[in-house]
Sequence to fold (906 residues):
Amino acid sequence: MRHRSRFLVLLLTAGLTAAACTGADGPNAGSGGDAGGGYPRAETLFTSGTQWGPPSNWNPIMNWTYATGTVGLVYETLFLYDPLTDEYEPWLAESGDWTSDTTYEVTLREGLTWTDGEPITAEDVVFTVELGQIEQVPYHNLWDYLDSAEAVDERTARFTFADPRYQQWANWVYFNPIVPEHLWADKSDEDVTAGANENPVGSGPYLYETHDQDRQVWVRNEDWWAIEALDLDVAPRYVVDLVNTSNEAALGQLLEGNVDLSNNFLPGIASLVDGGYQLHTYFAEPPYMLSANTTWMIPNTTRAPLNDPAFRRALASSVDTATIVNSVYGRIVSAADPTGLLPIWDEYIDRNVVGQHGFSFDTGEAKRLLNQAGYRDTDGDGLVENKDGSPLELTLATPSGWTDWNEAARVIAEGAEAAGINLVSETPADTVVQDMRESGEFDIILDNQRQMDNTPWRYYEYVFGLPVQEQQTTVNYGRYENQRAWDLVNQLDATRIDDLDGMNGIISQLQRIQLTELPIIPLWYNGLWSQANETVWTNWPSAEEGSPGYLPSMWRGYPQRGAIRMLTELRPAEQQ
Amino acid sequence: MGRYFGRKLAIYALTFFVAVTINWLIPRFMPGDPVSRMVARAGMQTPEGVAAMREYYSSLFGFDVPVWQQYLNFWGGLLTGDLGVSLWAFPQPVSSIIVAAVPYTLGLLIPAILLSWWAGNKFGAYAARKKVLDNTVLPIWYVLTATPYMWLAILLAWALGKVAGLFPVGRTFSASLRPEWSWVFVTDLVSHWFLPFLSLFLVAFGGWAIGMRNMVIYELESDYAHYLGALGAPGKLVRRYAFRNAMLPQITGLALQLGVIVGGAVVTEIVFDYRGLGYLVLEAIKSSDFFLLQGIFLFIVIGVLVANFIIDVVYVLVDPRTRAGMGGGA
Fold:
């Protein structure tokens, strides 16, 4: 007994020592990558910032939750759309044209194959479009205006429209990936819309390698069609996307060079970029990041006094956006145009309308507007009351833990109070905020759910979308009802994408309505958060002359916005 | 003996039933409706799509039947090993997510608890008789045990992980490795395991050692020890009796520790970003994934019951009084 105990102590000591020793060289062995079993560091791209839960499905139809890279790296779209140049680049398609007002024909490239060796044909394209007839498929509404889809020959598919929606269709062809009919035809509706689709077979530059709860690994497809057709090839042999834990952890990994591209929101990144860590951002000076979406303040237009456009205007004038941009965000975002249209949509902004009806931060103006509209301080506490004299108290809800928004909400509340509006910031759990948003049980919330896109129609659909339902799950959370505006949005949808004058004619009217009514109050442009470490990979996208100007993001929906070209442009760094 | 265990088992069965029922109820009181959450994430454009999706998820999660039937279905699923589908990692089944995480948690906690228990008791008993040790080394553990665990863990991660760079912090193995039976992978796994293990070991070791020390001193001062000494028994024999008596509360303590094995690791796994069950608990709460939460709690409940049962058996073996009690018509 006694002897055995001694032996155990020895064993324990030996074990701990061994663990300590191996621990010391463990990380080196990992990053060196020469030893067997690892992904060689020099050939592997580590990314983070997209995946918040474990990779759990590879289903391109579930376009809000698939494992990072499922669309873009594996499943591909007919076209790529680059928001920075406003150009559609044929991808799986060789060309696509409207052959008449109501028919669209798309021709695939020659000799395309799925990664299991089967050819990609027009039947696959037709099949993918027809999946939209299942109600739970995100593009189900396509069939509201599409009449039929048919394969004309091996490579050509023809679509006949009852009511052509040119803007939406242009969005469809670049955003939605084509899936192989021979593997998907036998799937049940549930499997198509909610299945995990393990072992995805696509056509893209990468193949599924493996996944774990904290990572997704892709390996290069050496037979990718674009190698021959476009003389393009993706540089990294492996792409390892890491599941996020926290933004702080992401920052640490990036600085240590364990992550090459971080699409996380990293507060304070500006000082690190200037501080000589080999960090790279799209712009070398503020705002450092491209603008990806607009953060709006959304007033609930069904509640008094927020149902009064004059009150909303006073509220809009009370917000000190410059403080939010400079102090809360440390200048990695920029203040939004009063229309809220992103910088890529600059050509659609009607400067006359903005000059006439735009708003800006001006506490005095906010006070004047309140007074003029009949909101007066009757009890002398410095804050205005409702028109009927009852106390006015509004809450602005932002999800707890979203520290940037919580802080911005505080600035907004202070600005409102200075103008005489009693506005309180509160931070419930994000699930609670979501419930409030959908059921309309809120006063004011912040939201930013429309990304940069091929058409401002997507933006106006969000602002004016009708009809208002019991649960508003995607658009018009403020429940603003204006039939004329919604008609204009639909009219815009039915305008050709190359008819800039036609589009601008409608958009100008929409802007007039938007700026006089203020159903949403645009505040700032959120960044396309992206910071790269140049230790292993270089030639990252940037605004500089001579460097690739693609979108530097692995976020869902971004590879088809041209970000896949970032991977074809990367170069291995010089080995020291 | 049979009657004793029969009664124990009946109590365990009742406890299990009540615990599982509570476990089923609690997530349903959480704010937020998982179906709306899933539908909202999908960003459906059309009302028909939203309705169809709502219906689909409701039936998938079993919300389309009356509450009493949901409860019965839950038991039915439980007995067939079906714990439902996770929302956090949709559409993976909860059971497979838990099975993947369990080895990490057990691999961390079982060695930490058993080793610290064993080493702590030995050390405590030894320190009780060595004034020098009692005055110099033990106070270190008074401090360690009294420090908030969270702070100690962060300190360890910072000192040994960041500053000294001896151990990696975060994840269960390096992102650049494939899981396989190779020397590189196993050493990497061990090096990621070591810091969380050490933090648990240090704190628990101090607790056991201090407890044991006090107990042994108490036993050595008791009447029977003095009597034994007066009879002329050698000091070694007296100490053996004292040690055996002092062990009993420690065994109960061990049972409790082993039972709440999962709960105990939540903070460790969060601080060291170690992907076991504790990490899943946090993620499940953050994403209101009741099915996952339910599954993990079920695992904890089973863990507590099994550990207690084992300790009951061990008690019969180590404490003659229990055996005597069983015979005496208790």
